[in-house]
Amino acid sequence: MVLPTETATEKIRELVDRYNQLVKEGKTRKFSEADVGSKFILPFIEALGWDIKNIDEVREQRRTLTGPADYSLNVKGLPKLVVEIKRFDESLDTVRTIRGREESYAEQAIRYAWHMKADWVVLSNFAETRLYYSHVIKPRDGIVFEFKYYEYLEKIEKLWILSKESVASGILDTYEKRRMRSEIDEQILGDLFACRKILVDSTSKNNPQLGKEEIRESVQKILDRILVIRVTEDRGIIGSDSLWKELDSWKTRGLPTPFMRSLKSLFRDFDDVYNSKLFEKHTCEDLKLDNEALEQVIFTLYNYNFDLISADVLGAIYEDYIGHILKEAEKRIDIVTDYGTRKEAGIYYTPTHVVEYIVRNALLPFLKDKKPEEVSELKVLDPACGSGSFLIKAFDALKEYYKSYNRNQRKRLELQQTSPALLL
Hints:
Blueprint: H1 6-25, H2 33-47, E1 58-60, E2 71-75, E3 78-85, E4 95-98, E5 101-104, H3 105-115, E6 120-124, E7 128-133, H4 139-142, E8 143-148, H5 156-159, H6 164-169, H7 184-206, H8 212-234, H9 242-253, H10 259-274, H11 291-301, H12 311-321, E9 324-329, E10 332-337, H13 339-345, H14 352-362, H15 364-367, H16 372-375, H17 389-418
Parallel strand pairs: 3-6
Antiparallel strand pairs: 1-2, 2-3, 4-5, 6-7, 7-8, 9-10
């Protein structure tokens, strides 16, 4: 068992004393969630050995209305521990209603971690800190510990399992509980198949004039569009819950027209703004579909926050998903795996670590000692582009090059202003 250092213990003691002083002065209500994070939780994380200035180790997540979590603590670039922060005066047992569904803060935090493929999540308002395992549905099944702030020092050895040293060495993983749900990629893949089946059944039933290939293309187009809208919502590209609001408005007004007509208007608006081939006019927009089928698909996709799911995971899911075809069966159309289709189309997902290795050895040596004007002329070709994994990693490498170059230029400028003689 790795034990905390005296320095770490002293830092945590200072934070506890500072919080006690705020309680005595009646000032805790003045602290926003951001204040709690910057003045208490981040120093708390730092006391546990994490380098809060290293973005590869402690990453602040971009916030949307429904997520993501505040921080992820990463080991070797992968999120291992997610940290969700609340205000001092907020109970960690608070329950909110989101899109008609009740969800507690603990359920929210576990959902964030599960979406990010992190096994562990910390929920804290500093007054209380809880550790949960993320592969559960009910928080009580995943709780590892819950400490009040006045217990931090008394139970610091147990608290130390959150330290960088304990997490990196695998000590935290010895507390793993029974997994009660699948990995996020398996779950989404299953739900995408279910959504596809719902749309196939509704399309074939209401549009008997369509052949199998027309049904396949139309269903794929509709599902792809709804999925893209959900991703753009969660990533802050378009207004949050645009799809949900369209559906809710249609239901509230009790319109006699089918929901597909409202959805068509949303598709046209999206195409006007983003001019994407996916959303250009298509016969799928004028098909007859059951309102209940479209509603069920939309509800299913709102179970996920796509801002939390990496492009690599989405790519692997989608490449597996499109390796299935429609097959005519007695009085219906089924979805079946077709390995021949996968082979002919070259639908094979390259693991992330392989992509990173190739990009690191093919692109990074080329960037070394290059000037920005030379790099700007660079062209990167992915001859077998599927989900774009290589292009995304190549973009990340180029982005890092420019960030590094700008940092060095700023340092040089600062040095020139303070000690010009050193540059001669």
